[in-house]
Design a protein that fits this description.
The protein has 344 residues and is an alpha/beta fold. The chain is built from 13 helices and 8 strands. Helix 1 packs across helix 2 and helix 2 crosses helix 6. The model has no long low-confidence stretch (mean pLDDT 92).
Amino acid sequence: MNVEGSRPNAKKLNLALQGGGSHGAFTWGVLDRLLEDERIEIEGLVGTSAGAMNTAVAAYGLAKGGKPEARKVLEQFWRKISDASKNGPLQPSWLDKLHSRGNMDFSPMWQMIDNLSRLFSPYELNPGDVNPLRDIVDEVVDFEVLHASDRVKVFVCATNVLNARITVFDNKTINVKAVMASACLPFMFQAVEIDGEYYWDGGYIGNPPLYPLIYHTDCRDVLIVQINPINIPDVPRTARTILDRINTLSFNSSLMREMRMIHFITSLIDKNILDSNHYKRMYVHTVDAEMEMSMLSVSSKLNADWDFLQHLFQLGRRKTDLFLKKHFDQIGVESSTDIVHKFM
């Protein structure tokens, strides 16, 4: 297996990847740009929902053939998603394309599916539990390669439906069911059963959780790829936008709590109240597209049109290129993100 070795002068990064449906193509762009940079080495990946899919695919590529292979399989994965969507009912209408870059608010099929999901459960609408994404993940990722590799540490999280606890799957336990559990939106898909336990989307508990990177890697730097906007320009006034904002607040809340705790621990280390030899100082970095993502409606999270995915991909690459130009020297030295300003 041709796996590239560690570069002694490369800066190590842990990546924390949020979920958000098709918006995960933004994260694909971030990953592609980072994998292109020979100065960066990825030590650990943690992801939720679409972030879990990007995590599994990227880690598999790294384990199989290093950075070039990771970039290749990520593109293959997102291309397969787009190709599969061409045969599905959810397509942006000409009116959608006229008014926005990605929204499907004028699509009759989107409106019908959105309304039906409020009246019927996936057990009623989809009794066979059909999920094309499951087949794509299973086709692209050979999980046995991940089980046998220590090239990168892998963590994906899911929410246990019955006891409200977070479950984190790692290199040894990750499989296609674990990834689908992390991405199981309860209004769209049946809960995923694994070893007698039932799981929904990990975003309800951690989007994504940072503690696996803190406790199970040596790297101090974590780059959060944030695709759910913390700030939005206007107060939601329709039932659909209100529900979307509630979901966004829910999915961001756990991350913001962890960031407050990291800030608290760091302040105690700075005051010599805690010994830095026993408590890990974390350097926090972020890549986001707050303004651009805040302009997209919830319908765009199901839009797998290739032009839209490419738009998000290129946006992710541009934002990461800007991050590297502005903050590369801070990696391994200090946080480039002001935690108080951004998360508190």
